[in-house]
Amino acid sequence: MSREGPALAALTARLAAAPRDALDPGVVALAVVDDALTALGGPPLDGALRRRLASGPLGSAEGRTGAVLASWLVLSPAWRAAQPDPRAALAVVEALAGSLAPVLPPAQWVGDPAGREEAARAALRAAGMRPAGEDDAVAEDRWTAVSSALRASAMAEVAQEVRRAQELARALAERRAREAAAQYTHV
Amino acid sequence: MSDAGLDPVLAEYEPMGAAVLPDEERWPLLVAAGAERLRALREHPAAPRWTHACGDRLDSGDLDALDALAAALAAGSGRDAPPGGAEPAWVGELVARVHATAPRYRRLVREGRAGGPGGRAPDRLADVAPVARADLVADLAGFVPVDVPLARVLEGTSSGSTGAALVVPLHPRALAAEVVLLRHLLEGCGVRWEPSSERAGLVSLLAQPTAFTYASVMSAFGQAAMARLTLHPSAWRRPQDARALLEALDPQVVSTTPWPLAQLCDLADAGADLHPLALVSGAAQLPAGLRRRATEAFGVPVLDLYGLRETGPVAVCADGAGVHVVVPRRVHVEVLDPSGAQVAPGVRGEVVVTVDENPHLPLLRYRTGDTARLVRVGGRPALAGLQGRPAVALLSGSGERVESVTTTQLLQAHGLRGWHLHQDAAGAVVLRTRDGDGDAAAARASLQRLLGLPVALGTLDAAGQGPGSPARRTTCDLPGGAPA
């Protein structure tokens, strides 16, 4: 069971209103994240966490932009009213930068209505929340419907299954498989 | 058979046509003593014209695993079904694993059509939709987990009694585990089955003319000799050779099916010098009369082993009481009604099997097409009144019994998936098939050649459809249509 979070519309509006600078690859994402977490009352990022973020979710240009947008989102009044915990904010940064940014370019989190909804729902899930007015089942269904990560994962699964079926057919057709092995019962 | 030649449609049975490996790949662990046993068996003066060569493909890791399995069985640790009818703990884990790794189930999850809440992966077996042989035939790869290496996969085939011929991906270790299981079951009957350098460990005995026969040794059983033989006269160089070889091998265990078991009893009646420790019958129902006859002829336990090639052994009747006790494998048995719901305990329904023994083919709720009542014997699940595949033979024009396994080979080779082949009390034969299923005309021609009788063609009506798969029935109203 998740807890009720802010209204989805409040979060998508916040993303749509993101400053153009947020998409500038020159922005120092770690500093933006650090500012956001301290603004929420958390301690400054320590060395270990900085290294983990830099070598992980913030290791790519998309990840860094994603982290900046996530920071912008968790500083919105609607978010802060529902979930002011800086640890939840860090989880949102990591999820959006590490999991969403690789499959959905952060520019779409701002400029595309579907992208905004997906980013907002991904942020809520990462913080253990559901949009205001939705129950868990509805939230889960809508997430499944919009999730690029799920679509990418499904496509990867399908590709793997196609390869695997071919591999199985080849393996079973090989003469070494067809010679079989001794069988001891007649079931 | 009325025609001694091999029907062209059965080309895969061409002698030695499927034997391609060098011996060192067949038996990676073969030692000198085993090699000598193998040579002696292959070159025995009474040997049949071997039609195949088969090893066990076992490596040292397999031997360790099989030793561990034997120890676990001996200790009774964890392989028996839990008391009180509870679902074994491994079943829930298997449900989760299969939904994460088997393409058919992953697809259901992706499409929101799986059995759990909201179409997601279910947490419990009861929410998994049963599958049937037709599902395996249509999409075998859908059942094979994507994370299991295929380097050692072996092709097994199953003719079965329901649905189409099926390729079953097998694993050498899972096959060899059947010997470990048999030893354990025999131990339960008071029979100690230990490798002997003087006798064959096991003979797998058939009676049909078209059969793979081979000489082998069992790496996981002291490299004792093992042979697969058919008693059909066409397999031997001289009429007396079958008995002579059996006497020379004096197998400790004969694993067979009802028709050849009846012929083995004939040999015993004729004074054959055989001293099996036990007999194991499978593939078809063992008639009670034949069981009594075999018990009296040899004075040893007769195990009636129930299972399918797809699932491996499921249950065994060791005492002739007509109740098959579920064997200590990772096999879980339910009895379901046609809608897929569990029937009340003791009510007859379809036997549905969940099994996690063959790494290439874990199965969730696999419909067997056989029916029984689920009961408990000594706290263990058991199948009472099991009605599976009857052992049937037709009478050829020349007066020879032709087992249904032989007609099944022919019909499935012609692409038929469901049929009813019937011989009436006057000896007339009719083959009923489904419209558009395989080449019925060619199948009829093959049958006529095999039986030396005219065969009429008919249409299979809706009553010939089994649950999930078209039935493959062979029936005979003539006296002697069942082994005795």
What's the architecture of the largest domain in chain B, going by CATH?
A: 3-Layer(aba) Sandwich
CATH C-level name of the largest domain in chain B: Alpha Beta
Structural class of chain A: mainly alpha
CATH topology of the largest domain in chain B, by name, is Rossmann fold
Q: What does the main sheet of chain A amount to?
A: 2 strands, parallel
Radius of gyration of chain B: 22 Å
Query: pLDDT average of chain A, as an integer?
Result: 93
Shape of chain A: elongated
Query: What helical percentage do the residues of chain A reach?
Result: 55-70%
In percent, how helical is the residue content of chain B?
Answer: 25-40%
Strand order of the largest sheet of chain B: 4-5-3-6-7-8-9-10-14-13-12-11
Number of helices of chain B: 12
The count of strands of chain B amounts to 20
Helices of chain A, by number, come to: 11
What class, by secondary structure content of chain B? alpha/beta
Question: Can you describe what's shown?
Answer:
The complex is a heterodimer of chains A (187) and B (484). Chain A is built from eleven helices and two strands. By secondary structure, chain A is an all-alpha fold. Chain A folds into two domains: 3-146, no CATH class; 150-186. Chain A has a two-stranded parallel ribbon. The model of chain A has no long low-confidence stretch (mean pLDDT 93). Chain B has 484 residues and is of the alpha/beta class. Chain B folds into two domains: 8-80 and 167-387, Rossmann fold (3-Layer(aba) Sandwich), CATH 3.40.50; 393-476, GMP Synthetase, Chain A, domain 3 (2-Layer Sandwich), CATH 3.30.300. Chain B has twelve helices and 20 strands. In chain B, the strands form four sheets. Chain B has a twelve-stranded mixed β-sheet, with helices on both faces. A four-stranded mixed β-sheet of chain B has the order 19-18-17-20, with helices on one face. Chain B has a two-stranded antiparallel ribbon with strand order 1-2. Chain B is globular and about 65 Å long. Residues 464-469 of chain B have low confidence and may be disordered. The interface between A and B is large, with 28 and 60 residues. Chain B: Residues 158-353 form the AMP-dependent synthetase/ligase domain. Chain B: Residues 463-484 are annotated as: Disordered.
